[in-house]
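W.,

You were right to be curious about this one. When I first looked at the sequence I had no strong expectations either way, so I just let the prediction run and decided to look at it fresh. Below is the sequence, 284 residues in total, followed by the output.
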Amino acid sequence: MQIELEKICFEYRSLVAEQRKALTDISFSMDSGELAAIVGASGSGKTTLIQQINGLLRPTSGHLRIGDIDLADPSADLQWVRNHVGLVFQFPEIQLFEETVQEDVAFGPKNLNWTKSKVDQQVKTALDLVGLDIRQFGTLHPFELSGGEKRRVAIAGVLAMDPQVLILDEPTAGLDWSGMQKIESIIRQYHDNGRTVLFVSHDMDLVARLAERILVLHRGQLVFDGTRSALFQQELLLQKAGLEMPCIVQAMKTLKKKGIRIQSDVFSLTEARAEIERYYLGSK
C-alpha cells in the first residue's frame, strides 16, 4: 500500500489561542514494504505528521493519499484508513483496559466484525509476534505484567487488526535494554513479513540500526529524506535539527580520525565489532 504526501500543511486552530502552523509543505512517498524513521527535536512536528497518515488529524491543505484514498477529501473513508494503517501511540500501555490480555488484544478485531474464529486466530498470531504465549499470558490481567510486557500487549492489539502499514510513536521510550531489544525485534519481524513500517524515535542508535531511510523534521519542515549513510555524513544538519550522532557511528568516526583504517559506515555493535576485528586480526 503506497503512501503519498504532497505539500501537506497543518495548523492547530483554537478559538482561544492563535493558530499554530505545525507542518509546512511536507512531501514524500513510501512504497509498500518500506521501513523508515522520522526524527527531529521535540516540537518539530513528528507526532502531528504520523497522526495525519493514520487519519487521526486531517491536513489543512495539500494531499495525503493512502492507497487510492485522499485524506484531504472530506468524504474520505477514514475508518478504512484506520483499519489498514495501525498507529501505536507513545506509552500505549496506559490504554489497556480489559480484564485479561486476550480480551484486550481482541478488542480491535472484534470491532471489524470478523468471525470469532478469525478474531481468536488473530489474537494468537499477534501475541506470538510480540513474544507472548497466549497460554501463559492470555488470561492474566494487564496489571500483572511488567512494563515491557504491557507495551508488547498494546502493540499486539494493533497487530491483531492485521494493518498493512504500522506506525509507531517512540516505541522504545521508557524501556530498559531488554525491553528495547524485544520491541526492535517486533518491528523487524513485522517488516520482514512484507509490511510497511514507519516509526518516530529520539533514540538515534535505534534509528541507525533499524531504518535505512530517515526523514528529518525541523520546525515543521522536512529538511532531509535519504539514507542513514548520507544523513550521518551531515553533522551540521544534525546539529541544526537538534539531533545527536548515533554512539556507534560517532565512535567509529573517532577511530578513523585517529588513523585506524576502518569503515565508519556501520550502525550496530555487531557490525562495529566485526569491522574492528577485521582491522586488528586481518590485514591493516
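Here's what jumped out at me. DSSP finds twelve helices and ten strands in the chain. And, maybe more interesting for your project: Residues 3-244 form a domain with the Rossmann fold fold (CATH 3.40.50.300).

Coffee later to discuss?

I.
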